């Protein structure tokens, strides 16, 4: 399943991070890869997943369909689409981070207007099942009006598995091991502090004194305080901050591990593992 998906979507999409965006006041997750040869895009409102892949020929045909009087190289159109998609507003904390980074609206961002609709698939699209999402863009490229439509069909299971589910499961394992090691470190610190106390040492200020760590009590209290907010899987918070960076590390490690697996072809050897490429943001 992994290899089949990678063959269709290529390494470009796998190299990207999920980004929280807002489409008509609704937070969504988007992952996109643009090149001079076309683009791949995944979109989710956390209830549905849609995707679209376009090669250079596809982009040229749609450009002519939607902009009959506009002639432009496919490479320039794809670059413009990348800039326009990168200008989509971010929800909540992500938008604040953009402002803190001093991200200024570009000319493309100022002129780009997105809208999206969901509809039942037409007959050629029905084999995939589910609804179709159309994200429409009205913008200006070099001062000339440009209209575009991302016509996304329901994403196939291998794409959702490779780009979201499998990395998320890997993230769970990483966070679980990290938690176990941190708890073990705290227990060792308790032993160290107890040794100091037995030697007559005392803290200089009373408020710095701590009780020995109770693993079970901590877990119970943590669940009571945080479980309700942690199960909020809205697109606004699911991949923010440190989790977004962790996703990149896990996704990169998965690709490296797959490259090191022996080929199923008799007599072949696995490629040597190189330096991991961490997924990056396209925004």
Automatic annotation (TrEMBL):
UniProt organism field: Petromyzon marinus (Sea lamprey)
Keywords on record: DNA damage, DNA repair, DNA-binding, Nucleus
Cellular localization per UniProt: Nucleus
GO process terms (BP): double-strand break repair via nonhomologous end joining
The UniProt record lists the keyword Nucleus: yes
Region annotated Disordered, chain positions: 254-283
GO CC annotation terms, alphabetical: DNA ligase IV complex
Protein name: Non-homologous end-joining factor 1
Gene: NHEJ1
């Amino acid at each position: 399943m992994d290899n089949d998906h990678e063959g269709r979507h290529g390494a470009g999409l796998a190299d990207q991070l999920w980004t929280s965006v807002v489409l008509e006041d609704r937070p969504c997750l988007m992952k996109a890869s643009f090149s001079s040869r076309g683009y791949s895009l995944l979109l989710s409102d956390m209830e549905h997943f849609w995707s679209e892949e376009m090669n250079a020929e596809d982009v040229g045909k749609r450009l002519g369909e939607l902009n009959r009087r506009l002639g432009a190289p496919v490479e320039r159109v794809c670059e413009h689409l990348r800039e326009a998609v990168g200008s989509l507003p971010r929800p909540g904390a992500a938008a604040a981070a953009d402002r803190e980074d001093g991200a200024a609206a570009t000319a493309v961002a100022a002129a780009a207007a997105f809208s999206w609709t969901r509809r039942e698939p037409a007959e050629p699209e029905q084999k995939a099942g589910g609804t179709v999402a159309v994200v429409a863009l009205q913008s200006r490229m070099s001062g000339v009006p440009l209209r575009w439509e991302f016509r996304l069909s329901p994403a196939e299971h291998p794409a959702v598995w490779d780009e979201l589910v499998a990395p998320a499961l890997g993230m769970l394992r990483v966070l679980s091991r990290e938690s176990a090691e941190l708890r073990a470190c705290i227990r060792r610190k308790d032993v160290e502090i107890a040794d100091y106390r037995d030697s007559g040492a005392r803290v200089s200020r009373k408020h710095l004194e701590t009780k020995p760590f109770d693993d079970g009590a901590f877990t119970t209290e943590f669940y009571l305080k945080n479980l309700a907010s942690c199960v909020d899987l809205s697109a606004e918070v699911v991949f923010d901050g440190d989790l977004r960076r962790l996703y990149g590390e896990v996704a990169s490690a998965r690709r490296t591990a797959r490259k090191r697996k022996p080929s199923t072809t008799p007599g072949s050897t696995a490629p040597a593992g190189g330096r991991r490429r961490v997924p990056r943001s396209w925004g």
